[in-house]
Amino acid sequence: MSTPTASKLPIFDTPPQALWGGAREAAGVPMMVMSASFLGFGSMIRDVNWSVWDALYSTLSTWALPGQIAMAEMAYSGAPIIAMLLAVFFINARLLPLVASLLPHMRNPGTPTWKYYTVAMLIAATSWVGVMRRLPTLTQDQRLSYLTGYGLALYLSSPVATIIGYHLAGQVPQPVTMALVFLNPLYFMLLFLFDMHNVSKILSLTFGAILGPSLFLVIPNWSLIITGLVGGTLAWALGRTPTALRIQHRLRQPDKKTGASQ
């Protein structure tokens, strides 16, 4: 009888352990990267002459950095409120697929529905990647607890970083501030690269790298939306072809010498 690998064994004994374990794992590199991004956001808010309370409310109520940046820039330029609402709505709609793909894995008999709606607020790109990578090592009753601990650690650190960034404004060069803002999406992309056994992921990164810069030169205002729609759809469709599925199967086969996936 084959012995299960360590990666398939539960790493926590109880849901409370999973809760604190999620918080501990988020408190490393994920929290540092997200905090650095919100440092940049706090500094940017100071530059557009908003108060620290505006910055804090934005982070606590929205906790979606691209939407927060768009709202601040549009408000500073005097855009109509309806345009701001629509922009933030469409930008933050990107989180819907993350929630829809993650929450079904969290379902456990006897758990009240309101808990799922509450914890959904804690799903961001960083928490989604971290929790999805841990799912095979968690029992069904530990998954919601792990997501709660992981997401809460990131969520609670963000307003602190926002306030610090606000008060550091003017002491950090503008290029550094903008680099900090974009650090989180870069981290998300690098985490994506850790799982290169999925053909759809490989194709989506490839199409994004090609279409994004090319379309920006032609239609900069719509380049991101078109890149995501066209590149993502093509990656999904091509990733389901028989050839792609055979390649993916081969990539996931354990190496005979090491026992690890190729």
Written overview of the protein:
With 262 residues, the protein is an all-alpha fold. The protein folds into two domains: 14-181, no CATH class; 195-262, no CATH class. The protein is 73% helix and 0% strand. The chain is built from 14 helices and no strands. It has helices at 15-26, 29-47, 52-61, 65-76, 81-92, 95-106, 113-120, 125-134, 140-168, 174-181, 183-194, 199-218, 223-238, 242-251. Helix 1 (15-26) runs parallel beside helix 9, helix 2 packs across helix 3 and helix 8 runs antiparallel to helix 9 (140-168). It is globular, with a radius of gyration of 20 Å.
Compose a concise summary of this entry.
It is built from 14 helices and no strands. The chain is mainly alpha-helical and 262 residues long.
Low-confidence spans: pLDDT under 50, at least 5 residues?
Answer: 1-7, 255-262
What count of domains describes the coordinates? 2
What share of the residues lie within helices? over 70%
Which percent range describes the beta-strand content?
under 5%
Shape: globular
Return Rg in Å.
Answer: 20 Å
State the major sheet: none
Overall mean pLDDT score? 81
Number of helices: 14
SSE string, helices as H and strands as E: HHHHHHHHHHHHHH
Q: What's the count of strands?
A: 0
Structural classification: mainly alpha
The termini sit apart by 23 Å
